[in-house]
């Protein structure tokens, strides 16, 4: 091969790598929790602070844990998607992350409450256990309490139709 | 640096840089002498905290360490790690705790395995490759230069050159004579 082509080949290789890089999302950090038991917590619920909810209470269900906050704008963007999931009969529990109780309650009153219930994590300590680094985040947890899927950022209809719903079907059947 | 970190550990650091974003870094944060006191009760612990948090990536502003970042998550993590160190966890245990939750990506120096092998050795290999290309090029150039500097003459060319030289000599002599 002619040596004159070498720079062009080099450029091609570089362009290919950079091109692949452009399609990846650097904010998407693969969670090491996939396939592991959902970290245990027992937190007061938003509606009734004297009541506690723990991961074990949802055992036997295929359910979603959605991390949200009233200060989180993408959560509002995601809100209709969560509502549609809830309407389809998928149990969605909320983890109200680093929020103020009054603001959270107000947010749900204004935009609608798609959650079976929301638990409150005002310090974000449970968030650290779940590897939360940005809201919203959504975890799919199976009947045995094992995390099967995690989505960072607002859920969109594509992810729901292509990934989430088929996975839920599969997990429900097993 | 200690003071800068402690400054950053405060919930609401008074940022004078005006950049307003989390990317401003602890180094540019103003050092307020009074602010460092509450956390400086245990300087040894704080030193360990800095050492450990420097190893951990802030997942909000990914090019900053937990030690440097002003992001709320980094503040939470620092507080969490401070508690863990106080409770007697080793540096190793703290790192493992964070890796278990956020993955190896949270470490600036991830362990060597198949997914990180290119990260660890890629730059070195590229350097060796680059040096190889450079040396090959330089050698190639020298052989070219050598070839130009000493053009080898065949025997026939030498004879031709010698005869040219003698005939040239003669011509010069003739010219001189003619000039007289």
List descriptors:
heterodimer; A: 174 residues; alpha/beta; five-stranded mixed β-sheet; two-stranded antiparallel ribbon; 5 helices; 20% strand; elongated; B: 180 residues; mainly alpha; rod-shaped; disordered N terminus
Outline the structure in words:
- The complex is a heterodimer of chains A (174) and B (180).
- With 174 residues, chain A is an alpha/beta fold.
- Chain A is built from 5 helices and 7 strands.
- In chain A, helix 2 (73-87) links the parallel strand 3 (63-68) and strand 4 (92-97).
- The longest helix of chain A is centred in the N-terminal third of the chain and has 18 residues, at 6-23.
- Chain B is mainly α.
- Chain B is built from 6 helices and no strands.
- Chain B has helices spanning 2-9, 43-54, 72-86, 91-102, 117-149, 155-179.
- Chain B is rod-shaped, with a radius of gyration of 35 Å.
- The interface between A and B is medium-sized, with 18 and 16 residues.
Rg of chain A is 20 Å
Overall outline of chain B: rod-shaped
Order of helices and strands of chain A: HEEEHEHEHEEH
Q: Overall pLDDT of chain A, averaged?
A: 93
Largest sheet of chain B: none
Proportion of residues in extended strands of chain B: under 5%
How many alpha or pi helices of chain B? 6
Helix-strand category of chain B: mainly alpha
Question: What is the H-and-E element order of chain B?
Answer: HHHHHH
Major sheet of chain A: 5 strands, mixed
Look at the structure and give the mean pLDDT of chain B.
Answer: 77
Low-confidence runs of chain A: none
Q: Give a count of the beta strands of chain B, DSSP E runs of length 2 or more.
A: 0
Which strand order does the major sheet of chain A show?
A: 5-4-3-6-7
Report helical residue fraction of chain B. Answer: 55-70%
Number of helices of chain A: 5
The geometry of chain A reads as elongated
């Amino acid at each position: 091969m002619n040596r004159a082509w070498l720079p062009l080949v080099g450029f091609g290789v570089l362009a290919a790598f950079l091109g692949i890089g452009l399609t990846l999302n650097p904010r998407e950090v693969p969670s090491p929790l996939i396939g592991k038991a959902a970290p245990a917590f027992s937190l007061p619920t938003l509606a009734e602070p004297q009541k506690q909810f723990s991961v074990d209470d949802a055992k036997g269900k295929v359910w979603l844990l959605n991390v949200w906050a009233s200060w989180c704008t993408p959560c509002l963007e995601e809100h209709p998607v969560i509502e549609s999931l809830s309407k389809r009969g998928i149990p969605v529990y909320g983890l109200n992350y680093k929020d103020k109780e009054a603001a959270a309650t107000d947010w749900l009153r204004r935009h609608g409450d798609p959650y079976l219930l929301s638990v409150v994590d005002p310090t974000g300590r449970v968030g650290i256990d779940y590897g939360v680094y940005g809201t919203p985040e959504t975890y799919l947890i199976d009947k045995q309490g094992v995390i099967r899927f995690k989505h960072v950022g607002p859920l969109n209809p594509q992810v729901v139709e292509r990934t989430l719903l088929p996975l839920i079907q599969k997990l429900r059947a097993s | 640096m200690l003071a800068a970190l402690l400054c950053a550990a405060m919930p609401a650091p008074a940022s004078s840089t005006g950049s307003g974003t989390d990317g401003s870094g602890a180094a540019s944060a103003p050092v307020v002498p009074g602010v460092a006191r509450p956390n400086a009760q245990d300087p040894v612990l704080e030193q360990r905290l800095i050492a450990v948090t420097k190893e951990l990536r802030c997942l909000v502003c990914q090019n900053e360490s937990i030690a440097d970042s002003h992001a709320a998550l980094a503040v939470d993590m620092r507080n969490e790690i401070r508690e863990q160190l106080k409770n007697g966890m080793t540096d190793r245990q703290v790192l493992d705790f964070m890796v278990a939750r956020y993955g190896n990506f949270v470490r600036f120096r991830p362990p060597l395995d198949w997914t990180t092998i290119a990260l660890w050795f890629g730059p070195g290999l590229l350097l060796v490759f680059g040096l190889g290309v450079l040396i090959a090029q330089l050698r190639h150039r020298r052989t070219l230069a050598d070839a130009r500097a000493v053009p080898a003459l065949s025997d026939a060319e030498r004879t031709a050159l010698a005869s040219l030289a003698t005939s040239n000599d003669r011509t010069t002599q003739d010219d001189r004579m003619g000039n007289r």
